[in-house]
Inverse folding.
């Protein structure tokens, strides 16, 4: 297991704080490649109590997961990182 860093945006003014979540080595390795490619991992607790996790590029969010804050959070992070990594690999293969 390894730590993945996310930039968390906090209410009320969007102050930024770095938070970490421990994920399996394969997910952490994918996350590291995403960040090395120039993308940012971000999160925010919404007014609904849900948490928004995103992968952001220069022009905004390129992938997102919104889930209730709780035990489903780690699975949502894994889905988002895996999905984005697979799309990037498919794009590389087709170019």
């Amino acid at each position: 297991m390894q730590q993945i860093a996310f930039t968390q945006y906090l209410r009320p003014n969007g102050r930024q704080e770095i938070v970490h979540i421990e994920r399996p080595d394969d997910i952490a390795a994918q996350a590291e490649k995403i960040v090395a490619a120039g993308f940012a991992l971000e999160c925010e607790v919404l007014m609904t109590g849900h948490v928004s996790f995103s992968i952001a590029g220069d022009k905004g969010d390129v992938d997102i997961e919104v889930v209730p804050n709780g035990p489903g959070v780690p699975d949502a992070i894994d889905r988002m990182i895996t999905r984005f990594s697979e799309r990037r690999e498919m794009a590389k293969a087709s170019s």
